[in-house]
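hey so i finally got around to running the thing on that chain from the lab meeting. sorry it took forever, my laptop kept dying and i had to restart like 3 times. anyway pasting the input first so we r on the same page abt which one it is
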Amino acid sequence: MRKIFLVTLFLASGIAFAQSQYKLKVEGEVQQPLEISLSDLSKMPRKEASLKDKDGNTHIYTGVAIGDILAKAGVPSGKELHGENLSKYLLVKCTDGYRVLFSLAELDASIADKNVIIADTIDGKPLLEKKGPLRIIAEGEKKPARSSYQVESLTIGHIKD
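ok and heres what got predicted. didnt touch it at all, straight out
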């Protein structure tokens, strides 16, 4: 029994250490590249988004609005989001190789009413290790394909001819 307890304690401390070392990278065509820790995210303004699971149950995720993170990196928004800046995009990369794409225009509050957050909790609890520590939630989409698990980086790019 004692061995099971020690193994469990060892695994839990490893997970906690890995998450304490975690940094979300914001890179690409940004004014200020960032590496944001989970602690840094927890201090930013919080926002909720809902998402249905495969069984049709609605869950409430809490995290930081993607716009707030992008603003911190100096990504164009509002009045700056015109002309050439309208061809910029956000590529979300996950640790398992999954990638999803958003246009900056669809994420900008001056253009669209899309609620997209980087979540660290579900229904008031931390995300499970295999789905966290962060998940992007694109509320209101008919399919949750862009609400991806294990987000590791946000890369701003620009479509060029």
